[in-house]
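hey so i finally got around to running both of the ones u sent me last week. sorry it took forever, my laptop kept dying halfway thru and i had to restart like 3 times lol. anyway pasting them below in the order u listed, first the sequence line then the structure token line for each. didnt double check formatting much so if smth looks off just lmk and ill redo it

first one:
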Amino acid sequence: MVNNQQHELEKLANTKMPYGKYKGYYLIKIPEYYYTWHKRKGFPKGKLGSMMMEIDEIKINGLEDLILKLIRK
């Protein structure tokens, strides 16, 4: 179970925005206001939207450093 959770966090840390203003940015490095805007307007459907909701929660709780450490160099 822990291995699967670690894998999911690594995947979250290394996913980049596929389109728009922040195309190519790691999701965790996109400013919080962008997620706040999506929270009001609606997150995208599917896996990307789910990941963006997770990043939003991580940012709200000040846990970005935990995810930033998992970015592959």
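and the second one:
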Amino acid sequence: MAFTAEFFLFLVSVVLISLTGVMMPGPLFAATIEKAAKRRTAGLLIAVGHGIVEFPLMFLIYYGITQIVASEILQTVQITVGLVGGLLMMFRGVQTFRNRNRTSKKYESPRRESLIAGIWTTAANAGFILWWLTIGTTLIITARTFGLLAFMVFAGVHWLCDFFWYTGISLAIFKSRQFWTVRVHTAILIFCFAVFFGFGAWFFGSALWTAISTII
């Protein structure tokens, strides 16, 4: 395909929309804060873990776009994702809170811990799935008009926004870790708990309300 001016303008919009989403505090951001104090490359590994879930989802939407955009299927998927993802996020929050004293001890976090955190937090994040079923699907529909190669470029550009943001955040936190007292670290973990549990409760409650509304 020819990379036209319209496509490059589309990529600019992808970068702006992606950064708007990634810069908003959420479960993945909280996981990055939690792991970055222990490993310089935590954000990089979390971004890789995020991509392990995100890339297959993007291709799934790309090839199943006709079925996914059907309103009745979309609503069912949104309810299921909200209920299951909400519960998983609340569970993640409770686990973070319960382990707050253990994680406040200084130790070197193994690489796989950050990688798994990226995979787990992404897969359990109802907001991530719903974003791709709404805003993300709209972007994929547009990318689809430019062809498969353009879609692959779009997917790479979107993920790179995540990669650079979380890597940068991780480095900044790691370099300032000497200022992290036990009290500060505990406060950060309580913030992470609030983000996980709060987002989880909101998604679960919204999905439950939608399900009840459709029945009534």
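quick thing i noticed on the 2nd:
The chain is about 85% helix and 0% strand.
anyway thats it, ttyl
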